[in-house]
Amino acid sequence: MSTAPEEIKGVMDAVRTRVKELRGRKGWSGTDLGRELEALGVPWNRSVVANFESGRRPAVSVQELLALAAVLDVAPISLLVPMYSEPYRVTPEGMEPQNSVDVWMWMRGQQPLPGTSAASSRLYFAEAPTQVGRGERDPATGLYEWYEKVEREGGDG
User: Where does residue 96 rank: exposed (0-12), middle (13-18), buried (19+ CB within 10 A)?
Assistant: First the structure.
């Protein structure tokens, strides 16, 4: 049985569903979530939470998404993509819905989206970090090297 087009979740549908679910799991009210976000410099309150969860507020900024993930104790990807295999809209238009599992793997740098050309796939893998945070730590900044470049056999250059 196929999913009706109007039932296919998009990015904000997934975020809305997961925020409401995780807020409930923590036993938080909308006021509680707003207070936690406010402590991180994100000006949310009970009304903003209610408007977002109901769909009256159509979207969140990247900064708000990261703050939501931080206060809800989850990785940002788990707010963006449904947790189970289901059709998922990556973009509002111009792209067929993808399986949410494929989107998880794409966002984690494990595979390009299905239908990606061979040339684009090569670029995708050339840009995907291979070992995030595994490099040397800079004693001056306390930061880790972002990733180590790995020589790939059979590459174009």
Answer: exposed
pTM recorded for the entire structure: 0.79
Distance CA 48, CA 101 (A): 30
Q: 102-127 pLDDT, tens per residue?
A: 999 999 888 999 999 999 998 888 88
Cβ atoms 132, 147 nearer than 8 A: yes
Pair of tokens at residue 31: 């006021």
Residue with tokens 């998922």: 88
Helix ranges (H only) for the chain are 11-25, 30-39, 46-54, 62-72, 77-80, 100-107, 118-127
User: What residues contact 149, with CB distance under 8 A and at least 6 apart?
Assistant: 130
